[in-house]
């Protein structure tokens, strides 16, 4: 009898010797991987792939918007956003229309079919939140969120700094 393959989940707390100087980074990697895996399983129930729900969330909240702005809000590059929009359009959840004010821009809007999807996505995100937060108290949930926001701020600042070209005569010269 064939059974569906179960994803291999490593024991928590395992820290390779090479990662000993970055235990928080290693934990983030493990948590993000498991989160994406569970989100993917839940999203398959409604016919979506991970990150497509993030695009839809932006469109449901903001309505019609330029594809470039949508990519910026979601944090995706142009090529990834183009592929995502094509897949969502093929599924009937979005429609692309040319901008009347800027002939180079394409506007993306949610379709009526996507509105039925919204409640399902909200429900599965609530389930995912329950999986993530588990038995955390309200105070622990708040603390966790605050720490994650600080980590995101730190990473965003480092990413901005890495994008800045080295200045002549600066420390990298």
TrEMBL record:
Keyword Glycosyltransferase among UniProt keywords: no
Keywords for the protein's UniProt record, in alphabetical order: DNA-binding, Transcription, Transcription regulation
UniProt entry tagged with the keyword Chaperone: no
Segments traversing the membrane: none
Residue span, HTH marR-type domain: 21-153
InterPro entries linked: HTH_MarR-typ (IPR000835), MarR/SlyA-like (IPR039422), Tscrpt_reg_MarR-type_CS (IPR023187), WH-like_DNA-bd_sf (IPR036388), WH_DNA-bd_sf (IPR036390)
Listed Gene3D superfamilies: Winged helix-like DNA-binding domain superfamily/Winged helix DNA-binding domain
The protein, known as: MarR family winged helix-turn-helix transcriptional regulator
Organism encoding this protein: Streptomyces cinerochromogenes
């Amino acid at each position: 009898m064939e059974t569906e393959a179960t994803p291999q989940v490593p024991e928590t707390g395992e820290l390779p010797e090479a990662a000993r100087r970055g235990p928080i980074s290693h934990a983030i990697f493990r948590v993000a991987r498991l989160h994406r895996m569970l989100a993917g399983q839940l999203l398959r129930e409604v016919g979506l792939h991970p990150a497509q729900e993030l695009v839809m969330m932006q469109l449901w909240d903001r309505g019609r918007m330029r594809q470039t702005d949508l990519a910026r809000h979601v944090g995706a590059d142009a090529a990834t956003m183009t592929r995502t929009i094509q897949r969502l359009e093929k599924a009937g959840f979005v429609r692309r229309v040319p901008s009347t004010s800027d002939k180079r821009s394409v506007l993306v809007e949610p379709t009526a079919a996507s509105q039925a999807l919204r409640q399902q996505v909200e429900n599965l995100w609530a389930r995912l939140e329950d999986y993530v937060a588990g038995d955390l108290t309200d105070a622990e949930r708040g603390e966790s969120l605050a720490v994650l926001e600080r980590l995101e701020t730190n990473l965003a600042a480092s990413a901005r700094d890495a994008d800045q070209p080295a200045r002549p005569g600066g420390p990298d010269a």
